[in-house]
Design brief:
Largest sheet: 8 strands, mixed
Helix content: 25-40%
Distance between the termini: 75 Å
Length: 456
């Protein structure tokens, strides 16, 4: 009996946090279609996992940003046991790649060592969910006339709240003001997203960016900000307790490769989580998704079948009349992305979106000389359906609906991707306060119902 308990404890300890010791991240160049086919073959053979979707390289020519077509990369995760055969197959098909991260386990260990488990809130380290929620409560207590904390109705699959803070002058009386919604953390592993959103909250209340007090006060007089730092709390907690690279929610999703056994169970394994940013009801499950419930881009069985995405939908529908700006923070790549993600068609608001994008990326560059790229989601990233900003733009008819990919830049990032060093939290957040101010200065308040330039 004692031996069984010991074995249970050892197994439980070993499974408590995935170390990724010896794992490497390879950056594979997708120059021709066969390169992608090789990667898909290696994925289906379970020799590697894609950790970041294909991204397009951008170059600067004169004063205009120009996309270089055909220059795309994908980053993949390879275990020590599969490295040799992956390299052999890539070389045999003349697929160009480089080792991007030599030891992911060591990189994650450095990040954990740099993030002590402390309750005091700051922007020198990443914080766990309870620390973030506690700080929101503290801000409400300190600024009772400007801040109101509440939870979205319904809890997540694992029973957690999606906690939101509402900021405006005379907060008990400003419900009819134009609303700006800001969210972060829809993808669990993108830790700099909730951190940046929290910095925006502190800045609006004068706890940070003290030189902008007058600007922030004017914004609070005119608008109500409804800010949700982490709309995938189950996944975010899981990245702190089990797997740093976890992206999805944590609800059961289905059987791996959708294969069941004779007894009605899963032939391989039960998969958990769906990609919450493919779960919105806009061209749901049509492009940029996977049918495999274990895949990072599995969109769910039906739109809004996740409690967190349904909660966001319900709130935004309830306040659709007042909503004037939707903004979702992600990482990484340093992109300011406009609608649409599921098609290359140009929207009727394209001219406005490009004008806004130019203003925002200029502002993002000023303080720390960081170059962000502006363009439609499908133009500068990849085609994908079911994302939140497209849903707000198309279904709620909100002109200004955007996604921002934070630091690090791409392809300049070397040994950091989702594990952005803690010392970059503050500068990343600072430049995005500048970008947010420029964005708000350029938003519209209404638009027509036509979506595309060629609509009749």
């Amino acid at each position: 009996m004692a031996l069984m308990i010991l074995l249970f404890c050892l197994c439980g300890f070993g499974a408590s946090y995935k170390t990724y010791n010896g794992y490497k991240i390879l950056r594979i160049h997708l120059t021709i279609d066969t390169d992608r086919e090789v990667v898909e073959h290696l994925m289906s053979s379970e020799l590697l996992n894609v950790v970041s979707e294909p991204r397009t390289v951008h170059v600067q020519r004169n004063d205009d940003q120009e996309l270089r077509t055909g220059l795309r990369h994908v980053n993949v995760l390879v275990s020590p046991g599969n490295l040799a055969i992956c390299q052999q197959i890539l070389r045999s098909h003349d697929v160009t790649y480089k080792v991007q991260v030599r030891d992911l386990g060591e990189q994650i260990s450095r990040e954990k060592r740099a993030a002590p488990d402390i309750a005091k809130f700051s922007y020198d380290e990443y914080h766990k969910l309870d620390v973030i929620y506690t700080h929101l409560q503290e801000l409400q207590e300190k600024h009772p006339t400007k801040a109101q904390v509440f939870n979205l109705p319904d809890k997540t699959y694992e029973g957690r709240n999606i906690t939101v803070i509402r900021l405006t002058a005379n907060v008990t009386e400003g419900q009819e003001k134009p609303m700006i919604w800001i969210d972060g953390g829809i993808h669990a592993r993108e830790w700099v997203s909730p951190a940046t959103v929290m910095y925006i909250v502190d800045s609006l209340l004068g706890e940070e960016e003290m030189d902008k007090t007058d600007t922030m006060s004017a914004l609070l007089e005119k608008f109500q900000f409804v800010i949700a730092p982490c709309i995938n709390p189950d996944g975010y907690v899981y990245t702190h307790t089990h797997d740093r690279l976890w992206r999805k929610t944590r609800a059961p999703a289905g059987c791996k490769k959708n294969k069941t056994n004779w007894f009605g169970g899963c032939f391989y394994e039960l998969c958990y989580g769906i990609d919450a940013n493919r779960n919105f009801d806009v061209q749901f499950n049509t492009v940029g998704v996977s049918p495999d419930p274990c895949n990072n881009m599995f969109p769910g069985k039906v739109a809004f079948d996740q409690r967190n995405t349904a909660a966001v939908r319900n709130f935004l529908l309830l306040h659709q009349t007042n909503l004037k700006l939707y903004l979702s923070y992600h990482s990484y790549s340093q992109y300011f992305m406009t609608p649409l993600g599921y098609t290359h068609n140009t929207t009727l608001d394209d001219e406005h979106h490009r004008s806004v994008g130019e203003a925002v990326v200029r502002a993002l560059n000023v303080r720390h000389n960081r170059t962000y790229t502006a363009g439609s989601w499908s133009e500068i990233l990849y085609l994908s359906s079911g994302n939140s900003a497209d849903w707000v733009y198309e279904k709620l008819n909100i002109t200004d609906s955007y996604t921002i990919e934070l630091r690090p830049g791409y392809p300049d990032s070397t040994e950091t991707e989702f594990e952005l060093p803690a010392e970059e939290i503050r500068p990343c957040a600072e430049e995005n306060v500048d970008g947010l101010i420029a964005l708000i200065e350029n938003i519209k308040y209404s638009r027509g119902n036509k979506l595309f330039q060629n609509d009749s």
